[in-house]
Each structure stands twice: as C-alpha cells, then as structure tokens.
Design goal:
By secondary structure, this protein is of the alpha/beta class. It has 24 helices and 23 strands. Strands 1, 2, 3, 4, 5, 21, 22 and 23 form an 8-stranded mixed beta sheet that branches. Strands 7-8-9-10-12-11 form a 6-stranded mixed beta sheet, sandwiched between helices. The longest helix is centred in the last third of the chain and has 22 residues. The radius of gyration is 26 Å and the shape is globular. The termini are far apart.
Length: about 625
C-alpha cells in the first residue's frame, strides 16, 4: 500500500509538470547541445551537451544524459555544429592600455582598410566619430592607427588642414604605420602647445608649412609621443574608465573571460576598483601592480577572491625591455641591430641589480606572487639567481612565480625554471609578427629557432601559458593558437620547427594552465562540474582542421558565468572599429616600441624608466587615470 501511494504521488507530480527536480534531477538554467564540446579535462575530454545553473557547470555528458535536465524555464541553445571550449584566460596583457587600441579608428589602406586618399581618410574618420559619438564625447579625443602616406593617392601625409575639415573642436591624432610619425589637427596642436615658436626637440622634427614656421600638423620621432601623452592626460576619470571598459570588451570579443593588467600603476588600480564598484566589468580582471612603485598598495589590495570581478593578485617586476626593439638585456651582442648601436651592444637592464634582488626577496618574504618581465638571457639569468636565493632564504611554498616572455631563453635556463618552479608564460606570437626580424637582426638564424621555446617546456613535462601582451599585439586568441602550433612567420618561414606543439597542448596553454598560473584552476580553465560557466564558442573545431588555418577560426560567442557577453555580428559599427589584422597590429606596436626606444636610453639609468612597450603602456594608463603627463 505504501508503495502504491508513493507511486501515485510521483505520477501526480509528473502529470502536472511541476518545475522541480524529478527523482533528484536538478534542472538547468541553460543547456548547450548539438556541437563539439572540448572540455580541456583529460578525464572527460569531450561531451555532447553541457548544463549550466547559477553561473556554474551543472552537468556534462551525452545529449541523452543532459537533456533530462530540461525544465520549464530551461533555455536550450543549439550549437549548430560549432565548437565550445572553456573561456580563455589571459596569461599576460595590459587591458587598460588595450582600451586605446579598441577605441581607435582603422585608417589602413585596402585590403585591410578603406583609406585610399585624403578624402576617404576624412570619410572614415567622420563615420567612426558618428558611430562612436558617445565615446568621443567622453574621452574628447579621436585616435587612428595605420595610415601610410605611400599608399595615399596624394603621396603625402594628412596635414592639420585636412583633419580640421573633420573636426576643429575635437583633437585628432593619426599614427603612421611606421609608428614614428603623428598627424594632428589644429586642436591637438593647440593642446600640445605646438606653435610656430616651438623648436624641434632633440631627435624629432615638427614639420612646417610653406612659410617655414607654422606647424603643418605632421610630427616626427620624439616630437610625436609627448603630444599623445598630453592628449590622454585630458580624458579625465570618466574617459579613463571608458578606455578600461573598452579594453575588457575587446578581450571578450576574442573569447577571453579573464583579462590581466600586468604592471598596473597605483592610479590605474583606483580606476579599476571604481569601474568594478559600478558593476562595469563583464569579465574578470586580475591586476599585478608594479613592485617598484608601491608595495604597500600591493599588500593592502592583494586578494585571492574577486570583488565585483576585480582583484589584485600579486606584483609585477620588469628587468629589461623589448627584444625586437633591441632593449632586451642579452648575454651576448645582438646579431645585426638596426640603428646607431656601439660594437658589442647587448641591451641593458631596466632596473638595478639591487632593485631586482630586493623586489624578489620582498615578494617571497610576504608570499606575494611575482610576475617578472625578462626577455634577454642576462635578464633571465638574474631572475633565476635571485629566485634561487630567495627560495633558500624563505623556504619552498606555493608562490607560483612566473617568467613573462622569456623570448631569448637558453635551454639550460629552462632546466632552471623547472627546478625552481618558475612557470614560463611565453609569447609565441613573436614567431609570426617578428620571427623574420629576430632571424635577420636580433639573434640570427640559428638562435631565432629558440624564441618562445614552448617545445622545450613540453619536452620537460612543464606546463606553460601563452599570451598576446595586448596591445603590443592584438588580443586575438586564434592568432595566439596559430602561432603556438605553426610558428610560421609573416614571410612564411617556420621559426623553430622543433618548438611547435600540438593543438591540444596549445589550447591548454590558453585555458587550464593560465588558470593555474592565477591560482584559479579550481574554478576556471576547463569544463567540469562545479566550475564557473566561463565558455567560448568557435565557428570551427581547432582540433579537426588544417593547422595552417587556425588563424581563420572566429569566436562567435563568449559566455561569462552562464551569460552571453559577446556575440559575433556584422553591424556597421563593428566593421568601422579598429579591426584585428597584421598591418593595424604592427602600426600600434611600432608606435609603442618607438616610444619605448626613444625614452629607454634616456631613462634606463634612472630609478624606474619605461624603456619597453610594457612601460609605455603603464605610462599611458597612468596618464589617463591621473591627468598628469609631466
């Protein structure tokens, strides 16, 4: 009788369709099905469907197993053959600086842009300003990247008069594809106090009009970067927050659900906390302030948990500069450096030996995770030596120190990284963007094969992460994947065939391994029950296509804790935005590298200069946040 009564109750419950777990089954908020699901979990590498509830993974398995979790309120999403992965975790980037890249007009020549002459340049700028009117109003600045006077029908640079026809009220600055020249309108020149009475700075030229006195708007070399700093100093708190939000939105477009800001200035930390407090972050932002600037801030703000999707996770140390800019600190002379360098030139450190040793000792003494920028062999030698000493002094703990870049690592140094538990976060996009340059100028054809040595890590059973360092490069996740797998340069050369890795290894270096790097492997980096539903959907399966086509894969959707925060569309607004392509990326990067190299020799003997692109980005962010361009 008791059994019959219970059976009747169950049947009654099922008959009236009550939205509550039947037989202990918990219903999902969302179920994704009918696609390829790559979990990045070796114990369950694939699934047919995924159920999400309250922003976390509820269940995954076959479609039959998961669809029984469909309740009346469950949303069913058909992947239509697309591929789902865990959201990408940014191992190293500069998300606030990325906002400048995100909010810049595309002024490239065809086929990467639409600028053929001065008239089409003006049209593109007007359309960009119209499509981004709210942003222009907030930041009070228009920036464009990538024009090339050699590709314009007039075969000249755009001048102040040309840009004044676009706007006389909003400052406009256009950065040449070389990164060494800026074209500005009259309003920008006025703000920069550049007039007929202004003398050419050392190493730079202010081009003049027909009278030989009045600036025509074109600024060369060292005359250019100070103007950009001054203009960014005017964006104000609201403008700085706008750039920051735009950076996180750009990251989301490429499937990143966690963004990093490596080498954050104290003022930028304040801006990030303000945006977080307003609920302005759609993705998680993890910050590593400069250890040579404000250690008390790092100790005070460091947090293992996110507060409104923001946390300070540790500290950043910078030992040297840029390898492609010849400011990385090497253990031997550069191969064939381009520029006025003395015989035997090896680059230089960005900090003193005492500063580096003291910073590492402080981080270990206080159990603060330390990310260290070291590109050249000498810089990596110094990092290894000081971490070895700090480990012996303070003992072995789970601090997870990270080497950022390690572009010119020797193989014996990789052995030392493994021995000391230093995680390498490598930058294999160098093989594409600058592989030919490294082969021909920085290290030569033999050592060029060893840049970003992911293969050496795999050989030793080490985990590693890969990064984009945006906005040094674009935060294009598929370009990161492609470069890690193929190592094909812009000329088509394969830079270090033996250092290539398979697609699954490359995907782990963008998901579960950088999650481990951030102490977040229990909540991110793979699709497993209980982890955050941070997900990305691609239009193709990267494990099933020709590796040479990996860079053609597109992110169609990014999901943060079960909520879609980006979906691919073909709107005119997106088309007018600064788009990811080789030429636009190089234009932005060249500008950063030039600013770094032009300031590096002047600053590297001082307490803390910015003779690398990372330093320039930190300076730009600081200027935006504080308004101080001095």
């Amino acid at each position: 009788m008791y059994k019959n009564m219970m059976l009747s109750l169950v049947c009654f419950g099922l008959g009236i369709g009550v939205s509550m777990p039947a037989f202990g089954i918990e219903f999902a908020d969302v179920i994704y099905h009918d696609g390829t699901i790559i979990t990045i979990n070796d114990d369950q590498p694939r699934a047919e469907a995924v159920a999400v509830k309250n922003g976390k993974i509820l269940a995954l398995g076959t479609s039959k197993e998961i669809l029984i979790r469909k309740g009346e309120q469950t949303e069913l999403i058909n992947l239509d053959g697309r591929t789902m992965l865990p959201g990408f975790v940014d191992a190293h980037g500069h998300v606030m600086g990325g906002g400048l890249q995100a909010l810049s007009a595309n002024i490239l020549a065809p086929p990467d842009g639409e600028v053929k002459d001065i008239a089409s340049l003006q049209t593109v700028l007007r359309e960009w300003m119209e499509n981004n009117s709210e942003i222009v109003e907030k930041v009070k600045l228009v920036v464009g990247f990538g024009y090339d006077n050699a590709q314009l029908a007039e075969l000249r640079h755009p001048m102040r008069a040309d840009l004044d026809e676009v706007s006389e009220d909003i400052p406009i600055v256009l950065i040449h594809q070389s990164g060494h020249i800026i074209s500005a309108n009259s309003k920008a020149l006025e703000i920069g106090d550049i007039s007929a009475q202004t003398s050419n700075p050392t190493g730079g030229v202010i081009q003049r009009g027909e009278d030989g006195k009045e600036p025509n708007g074109v600024l060369e070399e060292t005359a250019a970067f100070p103007l950009l700093l001054k203009l960014l100093g005017r964006v104000g708190a609201e403008g700085a927050e706008t750039f920051l939000k735009a950076g996180t939105e750009l990251w989301a477009r490429f499937g990143y659900t966690t963004a990093q800001d490596g080498r954050t200035m104290p003022s930028a930390v304040k801006t990030m906390k303000a945006v977080a407090g307003e609920g302005g972050f759609k993705i998680d932002v993890v910050s590593y302030p400069d250890v040579l600037i404000d250690r008390e801030l790092i100790k005070r703000e460091q947090n293992d948990s996110y507060v409104n999707r923001f946390r300070v996770a540790g500290a950043k140390l910078t030992i040297d500069g840029s390898p492609q800019g010849f400011t990385a600190w090497r253990d031997r002379p550069y191969y064939k450096p381009v520029g006025n360098y003395p015989p035997g030139y090896v680059g230089y450190p960005a900090a003193t030996t005492e500063q580096v040793g003291d910073a590492i000792d402080w981080a270990f003494a206080n159990d603060i995770q330390l990310l260290t920028h070291a590109n050249g062999e000498a810089a990596s030698d110094q990092l290894i030596a000081f971490i070895d000493a700090a480990t012996k002094k303070h003992g072995v703990k789970d601090r997870r120190p990270v080497l950022i870049h390690g572009q010119f690592l020797r193989e014996d140094q990789v052995d030392s990284l493994k021995t000391l538990g230093i995680m390498p976060s490598l930058f294999p996009m160098h093989t594409f963007y600058w592989g030919d340059w490294h082969r021909d100028h920085t290290v030569g054809p033999i050592l060029a094969d060893n840049i970003s040595p992911t293969g050496w890590s795999v050989k030793r059973g080490m985990i590693f992460s890969t990064h984009h360092d945006a906005p040094v490069a674009f935060p294009d996740s598929m370009r990161v994947l492609d470069a890690t797998v193929t190592r094909r340069s812009r000329s088509g050369d394969i830079i270090g065939p033996a250092k290539r890795v398979d697609v699954m290894t490359a995907l782990k270096a963008m998901t579960i391994w950088p999650a481990w790097q951030h102490f977040e492997e229990d909540s991110k980096g793979s699709i497993e029950i209980g982890k955050l539903a941070d997900l990305v959907i691609l239009d193709q399966d990267p494990t099933a296509i020709d590796p040479e086509n990996l860079d053609q894969i597109r992110v169609t959707e990014t999901i943060k804790e079960g909520v879609t925060i980006y979906k691919l569309s073909d709107t005119e607004e997106e088309a007018a935005a600064f788009s990811p392509n080789d030429q636009s990326t190089l234009a932005f990067t060249k500008a950063l590298l030039f600013a770094a190299s032009s300031s590096g020799q002047e600053h590297h003997e001082h307490e803390h200069g910015f003779g690398c692109a990372c330093g320039v980005l930190s300076r730009l962010s600081d200027v935006m946040a504080t308004g101080d361009d001095s």
